[in-house]
Amino acid sequence: MTSSPTQQPPLNRTLQWTLLAALVLAIGGITAAFAVQQWRAAEVRSVRTLDRFKTVPAFTLTERNGQPFDSTALLRGKIWIADFFFTTCPGPCLRMSQRMQEIQEAVARRAGDDVRLVSFTVYPQQDTPEVLSRYAEKFHAQPGRWFFLTGEKKTIFDLAHQNFMLAVTDATTGEEKLADGDFIHSTKLALVDRQGTVRGYYDSSQAEVVQHLLSDLGDLLREQPPATAAR
């Protein structure tokens, strides 16, 4: 009589997430290096003027370090890239954060402190500064360069809808309940110029999104170099 093999317990969900994140980051490092090469190549061509969309007003939220985040003090005169996410998002947010991490590596090499990244949680009830801090560490987010913001939900949702013109739906307060999470939110990244005007949108699901965004960023840096940026 043959006995059936002992069934192995499934991998812990946290371990699965950690292994997947490690693989994503390894791939991201390679992609970032290639993106920097693309950025350098773009510098030799003529400057292309990007479209202009809505302007993001001044706002105050809370950063992952628990300190108030004043956009006027920390983003004024800077070019920045924004996304909307939440830490328990089952898939798309992991990809978005990977893209942001690749961009961070590229701008650290090419733009110094002149470009910043801002990630807004759409689930502030859950994503406290402590939660955001642990999430940011997984992507080696550099303090002072890549900010993770939480705060009043209305402020975040108004920014997404009215200024970034990006979709965010909170299904926890409506009739609809989603199978894979409680929020529908845009997976696009937004490029914002020194005056706070959105200049471009980039689909994070596209394979070449980082190269495309960095190419446009190069054009924007030449259009608005630090010495002539409006103060």
Quickly list its features.
single chain, 231 residues, alpha+beta, Glutaredoxin, seven-stranded mixed beta sheet, two-stranded antiparallel sheet, 6 helices, 39% helix, 19% strand, globular
Radius of gyration: 19 Å
* CATH architect. name: 3-Layer(aba) Sandwich
CATH class: Alpha Beta
Low-pLDDT parts are 1-9, 174-181
- The figure for the number of domains is 1
Oligomeric state as shown = single chain
* Computed structural class: alpha+beta
Helix-strand pattern: HEEHEHEHEHEEEEH
Major beta sheet, specifics? 7 strands, mixed
Strand adjacency order, main sheet: 2-1-5-4-3-8-9
Give the termini separation.
82 Å
Provide mean pLDDT, rounded.
Answer: 83
Overview of this protein structure:
The protein has helices at 13-42, 71-75, 92-110, 129-138, 153-163, 209-223, and strands at 60-63, 68-70, 79-85, 115-121, 146-150, 168-170, 183-185, 188-192, 198-203. The longest helix has 30 residues, at 13-42. Helix 4 (129-138) links the parallel strand 4 and strand 5 (146-150). The protein is an alpha+beta fold and 231 residues long. Helix 1 crosses helix 3 (92-110) and helix 1 packs across helix 6. The protein is 39% helix and 19% strand. The chain has 6 helices and 9 strands, in the order αββαβαβαβαββββα. The chain has one domain (14-226): Glutaredoxin (3-Layer(aba) Sandwich). It has a 7-stranded mixed sheet with strand order 2-1-5-4-3-8-9, with helices on both faces. The chain has a two-stranded antiparallel ribbon with strand order 6-7.
